[in-house]
Amino acid sequence: MLFAVAVWMAMSAFLPQPTPRGVPVVVVAHDLMAGHVLTAGDLAVADWPVDLSPEGAVADPGALVGRALGAGMSAGEAMTTARVRGPGLLTGVENGLVAAHVRLADPAMAAMATSGDHVDLISSTGMLVATDVVVLAVDSLPAGGGAWSTAPAAGLPGGIIVAVAADAAVRLATVDPSGLSDSTFSLVMRTPGT
Question: Which residues face 43 on adjacent strands?
Answer without folding.
Answer: 28
